[in-house]
Each structure stands twice: as structure tokens, then as C-alpha cells.
């Protein structure tokens, strides 16, 4: 068993570690099919070997070539450390600055087998959300961080550590970019080749930025989505006896079961892969599992009658579940589902993100690896069947929404009936959850704020929970009813967070807050660290899926209607602005959520250590990090954002935002265009 000191000592070369190969006891990523030419295979191998002295090339070249041909990528399994990956307490990392140690902690949390979807392939979530592209990169990054001073910055190019470069103490300690590909070449096919060559990487959102906190990171957002869907579609806060049907129990989608129960409804989640199904059940995130549709329908009926919150994991295909629910409706006239969505990884539909109903899990993996063209055809047939069943249930009263996973986009590409007459480029028959449910929340400045207690001590997390709840209760007394409802949802969430046992991996918490709430919570936690009430520094961060962090026309910016939904200035400006305002590290990604080439997004991490300097940085970063997106949404014509940024300017005399003048008389446009 290696130690943290050994992991941080650089690439182990003398001697080389034993090649233990792939661990059969952990889940592994689907085989990749980059379809490299002979010359491209040679280039991929050459690129991988440049991490090592030539004396090791005769040993490493054959095994790297085998990995490339067998798995479609060179992961360098030989260099996967024997040490258990997890978020060790910050004071255990051998380094020169706590800022570097905080990044090390977050990286190792992303690779914790309890957290990561495919830990040996360095995939945290989403089927292909990489932390790094290979284990040599991990070893080098940990070594650089252990050697770093506060006058150096680690520069990361798509998983590759370019090195430590001189900088200022006020500079970020790490600058991360993932998938920064020239736009005309940012296609899925090109990506598969680039990743196989080791020159680019898909970091999802918080995988490649080292800010993932396990499925809890999406539980709260999912709970809020379900609650607000009930308010909008069902006209009620009370979801007892209501049924929410969806799919996926992986790294992100695994949150759905827990969120449904917290919201008070019956959650039925289909999952074709038994490994994540069992994982969520053993973690207590899923109450029941069954592979029988008959039993599933029986339990739905019983829970509807008893109005008992329940989560059921159906081990099977979501298409079978939708078609069975339709059959029950056609037989009995009883609609057994009220709310519906989908969280299969359709950003990656042909490489393990979506499993077609016509094939078993094993058959699908085999066809995926041997006949990618045929697999594409089968996936599209399955999507058409899924949409057909959903459409009929929708006609009967089901309320369905796209969960930002490119479901409707890929269904449209497959020829399914999801078109909306007279709609814009980002609109379909069903809304995205941003368009109908969460978009207004973003425009108010609310989004997924999170923190990690680097001590690893649950008592520190409980203390910060209490701090956050007290802060929100104090500032919620003088706000509008619309904002107070959001605060109350989050106060309820944070007060009950401990009993729901949501920690997987690091001692972390998430809640949705607006600009004022985030700043006040961060400053209060920083003060608690200074006073010793919290025993060690705390990392603050957020999901990239936020007010300002992501430009994604089919998700985060799908409710932007001024023609700028496909523009990425906001996410890029956010990344740059966080960097020079004091973030400890920043990241900018191509892809994430909806998929490669479909979105630009960024995030940050900031270490609170109890100092006045940390408080200054937190205030600057968090104010900018929210106001940037609210200002953009205001300029696009969103009335909530207009009021929010106007109020923010009144509170901060240094903030001056260009405000839009709306066209009040449409006849002015008619006359001008007719003339």
C-alpha cells in the first residue's frame, strides 16, 4: 500500500510499478471506438511514451498498444496507485501551501471509488467525464502540487500538466482548460480521435475541474426541480401520492431517488446497469429494487394509495417502463405517472450513455464495440419508441420535461416526434427544466453553491450547515415573496440535510443561494474558521450548472431568447473574472451536461482559511460570479433578472450594468420592416 508521500513523489520509474491491469472488482468504462488509422495509432503511442524516459519504452510500448487496441484509449493502468483514493484531511498532504493541498484533496475525492463512476479510467460521472486522461498525468499533477509555492501556478491543458509557471500570490494556483478545440473541429468523431491521441479531454462539468461532491451535488437541484414542477404543473407543494418516473442511477442521475423521497413523492427510476443500481441501494439512496415490471406497477399503486414517499429502482430499460405505464393506462384508464423526465447520458448516446431497449446490457456493449453504425441505428429506433410512449402518456395528462441531458435534442436527431410548431432553435414539444422550472431561479441569482470541509470531520460539516441556515434565516426576512420561497426551500433543505445522510466522499454540502446569500455564508464560514469553531479550511465552489457558469442553448441558457443562446461570452468571461478576483483555481470546459461541442462552461474553487485575505477574495469572486450571469440574462430581456440586477446595483455603488430598453410598441417594428 503506497502513501500520500509516495503518490506525491512523481512518476514511479525506478523500479516501474507492477502492472496489475484492470481491477475486476470495480466498474469499468465502456470500450471506446476512436477508429484510428495505423498512423494515428502510432501517434497515440508516441504521445503516451513521451511521459517516460526512453529506457522504459521497450517495456511500456507493448502494453500501451494493447490498451489502445483493447479499450480504445491508453489509461496507463500500471501507474494507478495502490493507495485508497479518497479525500484525506488537508493536513495530511505533503505540500508547501494549503491552497495546493486543497486541490489535491478535491482531485482524490473525484477519484474515490465511492464517488467515481469508473475510477480506474479516471471517470467521475456521466460515462466519460474525465479527471485526467491517464495515470501519468495524475502522478505528475500531485507531484507539482506538492512542490508548488504561492508564487507559482499549475497550468493544465485537457488533463495534461504543462507545468508550474511563475505568478503572483494573488493568482490562481491552477488554471484548467478542457477540450478547447477550434470550433469547426469540435465534433464527436473528432473528439474520440483526439482523446485517443491524448491531446484533448472531456471534463464534463465538475469532473475535470475537481469540484464534484458525489451525487449530493445534484440531489438538491433535483429536489428543487421536482418541487417546482409540482407547483407549476400540479398546482401543489404537496407531492404525496404523486409519481415521478425517470431513468439513470449513475454519478449524477443517482440523485433522483433521494431527491424524490425528500420532495415527498414516489420516484421510479429505471437503470440497465446493475452495478450503479446496487451501489445506490447499498448507500441507502434507493429504498427498493426490482427487475419485475409487474412488481413495479404493484408498488406504484400501493404507494399512490398510502401516499408514502418511496424510491423504486427498476433494473431494466426505461423504454420498457414507459411502454408498460402506457399499457396500464390503455387497459384501465388509470394514469400511474404524474411527472416524467430522463437522465440517461444522452450527451454520449453511442458510447454507453444510452442503452437501447432492443438489446440486453451485455449485447449493447458488444454491439457498441463491434458495429458502431448498427448501434447508432438501434439507439435511434429505441429513442423513437421511448418518445412515442411518452407522447401518448402526455396526451393523457403526464407532465414531462427534458433534464438538460440532450434527450430531446438526440430524439429530434433520431426522427422522434418532438418538434414544436413555430418554435425557435432551442424549443421542443416539451420544455427543458430550465425553460419552465429552473430558469426563473437562475434569473433571480439562485444557483448551486457548495462547500467542502477539508478536515474530513462531520462535526465541521454540521457546524457549517448551522451557519448557512442561520444566515439564510436572517437575510430572508426582508425580501420579496418569490425570493423568500427560494430561501425557505433551502433553509428546509439545510436543516434536514444531516438526517438524509447525503455525504458520499468528502464532507461536503450544497444549497441553492443567490448572490447575497453566497457572500454572507462564505464570510460567516471564514469567520468560524478564524475563531476555531470550524477546525480546518473550507473550499467553496459551485456546480458549473449555474447562473453564470454555463452557456448551453439546450439547458442553462435555453430560456435566453434574444438570439444569443448559442454565444459563449458569459462562461468565458466568468472564468477570466473569477481568476483575477482571487479564486484558488479556475476551469473552462468544452462540453458538459448536454455534450461535446454543445456547451461552454466553467467553475472555480476558493479556499477559505479564516484570513482577511480569504474574506476579500470570497466577496469579490462571489459577487462577480453571480452578477455576470444575471446581467447577461437581464440584457436578453428577462424581467426577473432586470429586477435582480437593478436591486444589486442599488446595494453596490461600484456596480454599473448596461440596462436594456424594451420595445413597447410592436407596431414600430412592423412599420419599419414593411417600409
From TrEMBL:
<feature type="domain" description="Urocanase N-terminal">
    <location>
        <begin position="85"/>
        <end position="211"/>
    </location>
</feature>
<dbReference type="InterPro" id="IPR035085">
    <property type="entry name" value="Urocanase_Rossmann-like"/>
</dbReference>
<dbReference type="Pfam" id="PF17392">
    <property type="entry name" value="Urocanase_C"/>
</dbReference>
<dbReference type="InterPro" id="IPR036190">
    <property type="entry name" value="Urocanase_sf"/>
</dbReference>
<feature type="region of interest" description="Disordered">
    <location>
        <begin position="15"/>
        <end position="35"/>
    </location>
</feature>
<dbReference type="InterPro" id="IPR038364">
    <property type="entry name" value="Urocanase_central_sf"/>
</dbReference>
<dbReference type="InterPro" id="IPR035401">
    <property type="entry name" value="Urocanase_C"/>
</dbReference>
<protein>
    <recommendedName>
        <fullName>Urocanate hydratase</fullName>
        <ecNumber>4.2.1.49</ecNumber>
    </recommendedName>
</protein>
<keyword id="KW-0369">Histidine metabolism</keyword>
<dbReference type="GO" id="GO:0019556">
    <property type="term" value="P:L-histidine catabolic process to glutamate and formamide"/>
</dbReference>
<feature type="domain" description="Urocanase C-terminal">
    <location>
        <begin position="440"/>
        <end position="646"/>
    </location>
</feature>
<keyword id="KW-0456">Lyase</keyword>
<dbReference type="GO" id="GO:0016153">
    <property type="term" value="F:urocanate hydratase activity"/>
</dbReference>
<feature type="domain" description="Urocanase Rossmann-like">
    <location>
        <begin position="214"/>
        <end position="437"/>
    </location>
</feature>
<dbReference type="InterPro" id="IPR023637">
    <property type="entry name" value="Urocanase-like"/>
</dbReference>
<dbReference type="Pfam" id="PF17391">
    <property type="entry name" value="Urocanase_N"/>
</dbReference>
<keyword id="KW-0520">NAD</keyword>
<comment type="similarity">
    <text>Belongs to the urocanase family.</text>
</comment>
<dbReference type="Pfam" id="PF01175">
    <property type="entry name" value="Urocanase"/>
</dbReference>
<dbReference type="InterPro" id="IPR035400">
    <property type="entry name" value="Urocanase_N"/>
</dbReference>
<dbReference type="InterPro" id="IPR055351">
    <property type="entry name" value="Urocanase"/>
</dbReference>
<dbReference type="GO" id="GO:0019557">
    <property type="term" value="P:L-histidine catabolic process to glutamate and formate"/>
</dbReference>
<comment type="pathway">
    <text>Amino-acid degradation; L-histidine degradation into L-glutamate; N-formimidoyl-L-glutamate from L-histidine: step 2/3.</text>
</comment>
<dbReference type="InterPro" id="IPR023636">
    <property type="entry name" value="Urocanase_CS"/>
</dbReference>
Amino acid at each position: 500500500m503506497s502513501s500520500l508521500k509516495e503518490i506525491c513523489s512523481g512518476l514511479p520509474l525506478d523500479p516501474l510499478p507492477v502492472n496489475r491491469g484492470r481491477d475486476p472488482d470495480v466498474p469499468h468504462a465502456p470500450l471506446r471506438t476512436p477508429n484510428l488509422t495505423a498512423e494515428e495509432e502510432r501517434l497515440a503511442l508516441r504521445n503516451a511514451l513521451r511521459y517516460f524516459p526512453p529506457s522504459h519504452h521497450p517495456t511500456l510500448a507493448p502494453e500501451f498498444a494493447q490498451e489502445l487496441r483493447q479499450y480504445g484509449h491508453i489509461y496507463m493502468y500500471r501507474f494507478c496507485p495502490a493507495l485508497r483514493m479518497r479525500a484525506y484531511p488537508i493536513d495530511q498532504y505533503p505540500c508547501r501551501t494549503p491552497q495546493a493541498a486543497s486541490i489535491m484533496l478535491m482531485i482524490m475525492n473525484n477519484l474515490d471509488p465511492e464517488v467515481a463512476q469508473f475510477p480506474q479510467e479516471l471517470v467521475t460521472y456521466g460515462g466519460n467525464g474525465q479527471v485526467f486522461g491517464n495515470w501519468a498525468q495524475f502522478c505528475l499533477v500531485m507531484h507539482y502540487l506538492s512542490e508548488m509555492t504561492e508564487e507559482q501556478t499549475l497550468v493544465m491543458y485537457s488533463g495534461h500538466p504543462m507545468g508550474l509557471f511563475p505568478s503572483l500570490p494573488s493568482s490562481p494556483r491552477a488554471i484548467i482548460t478542457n477540450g478547447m478545440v477550434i470550433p469547426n473541429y469540435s465534433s464527436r468523431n473528432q473528439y474520440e480521435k483526439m482523446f485517443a491521441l491524448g491531446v484533448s479531454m472531456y471534463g464534463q462539468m465538475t469532473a475535470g475541474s475537481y469540484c464534484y461532491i458525489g451525487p449530493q451535488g445534484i440531489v438538491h437541484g433535483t429536489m428543487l426541480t421536482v418541487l417546482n414542477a409540482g407547483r407549476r404543473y400540479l398546482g401543489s407543494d404537496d407531492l404525496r401520492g404523486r409519481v415521478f418516473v425517470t431513468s439513470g442511477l449513475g454519478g449524477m442521475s443517482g440523485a433522483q431517488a433521494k431527491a424524490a423521497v425528500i420532495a415527498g413523492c414516489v420516484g421510479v427510476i429505471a437503470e440497465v446497469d446493475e452495478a450503479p443500481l446496487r451501489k445506490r441501494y447499498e448507500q441507502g439512496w434507493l429504498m427498493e429494487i426490482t427487475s419485475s415490471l409487474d412488481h413495479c406497477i404493484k408498488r406504484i399503486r400501493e404507494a399512490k394509495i398510502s401516499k408514502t414517499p418511496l424510491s423504486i429502482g427498476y433494473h431494466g430499460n426505461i423504454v420498457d417502463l414507459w411502454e408498460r405505464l402506457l399499457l396500464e393506462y390503455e387497459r384501465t384508464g388509470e394514469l400511474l405517472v404524474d411527472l416524467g423526465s430522463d437522465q440517461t447520458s444522452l450527451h454520449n448516446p453511442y458510447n454507453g450513455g444510452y442503452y437501447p431497449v432492443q438489446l440486453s446490457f451485455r449485447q449493447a456493449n458488444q454491439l457498441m464495440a463491434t458495429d458502431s453504425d448498427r448501434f447508432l441505428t438501434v439507439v435511434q429506433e429505441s429513442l423513437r419508441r421511448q418518445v412515442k410512449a411518452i407522447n401518448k402518456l402526455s396526451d393523457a395528462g403526464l407532465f414531462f420535461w427534458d433534464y438538460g441531458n440532450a434527450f430531446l435534442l438526440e430524439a429530434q436527431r433520431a426522427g422522434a416526434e418532438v418538434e414544436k410548431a413555430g418554435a425557435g432553435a432551442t424549443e421542443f414539444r416539451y420544455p427543458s427544466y430550465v425553460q419552465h422550472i429552473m430558469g426563473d431561479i437562475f434569473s433571480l441569482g439562485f444557483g448551486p453553491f457548495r462547500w467542502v470541509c477539508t478536515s474530513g470531520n462531520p462535526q465541521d460539516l454540521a457546524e457549517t450547515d448551522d451557519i448557512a441556515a442561520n444566515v439564510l434565516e436572517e437575510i430572508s426576512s426582508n425580501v420579496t415573496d418569490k425570493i423568500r420561497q427560494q430561501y425557505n426551500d433551502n433553509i428546509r433543505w439545510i436543516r434536514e440535510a444531516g438526517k438524509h445522510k447525503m455525504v458520499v466522499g468528502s464532507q461536503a454540502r450544497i444549497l441553492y443561494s443567490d448572490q447575497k446569500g453566497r457572500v454572507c455564508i462564505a464570510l460567516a464560514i471564514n469567520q468560524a474558521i478564524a475563531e476555531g469553531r470550524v477546525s480546518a479550511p473550507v473550499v467553496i465552489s459551485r456546480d458549473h450548472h449555474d447562473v453564470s457558469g454555463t452557456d448551453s442553448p439546450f439547458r442553462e441558457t435555453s430560456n435566453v431568447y434574444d438570439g444569443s443562446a448559442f454565444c459563449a461570452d458569459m462562461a468565458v468571461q466568468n472564468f477570466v473574472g473569477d481568476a483575477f478576483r482571487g479564486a484558488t483555481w479556475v476551469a473552462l470546459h468544452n462540453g458538459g451536461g448536454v455534450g461535446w461541442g454543445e456547451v461552454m462552461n466553467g467553475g472555480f474553487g476558493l479556499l477559505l482559511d479564516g484570513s482577511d485575505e480569504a474574506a476579500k477574495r470570497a466577496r469579490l469572486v462571489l459577487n462577480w460570479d453571480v452578477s455576470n450571469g444575471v446581467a447577461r440574462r437581464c440584457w436578453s430581456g428577462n424581467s426577473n433578472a432586470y429586477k435582480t440586477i437593478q436591486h444589486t446595483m442599488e446595494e453596490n455603488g461600484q456596480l454599473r450594468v448596461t440596462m436594456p430598453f424594451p420595445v413597447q410598441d410592436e407596431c414600430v417594428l412592423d412599420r419599419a420592416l414593411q417600409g
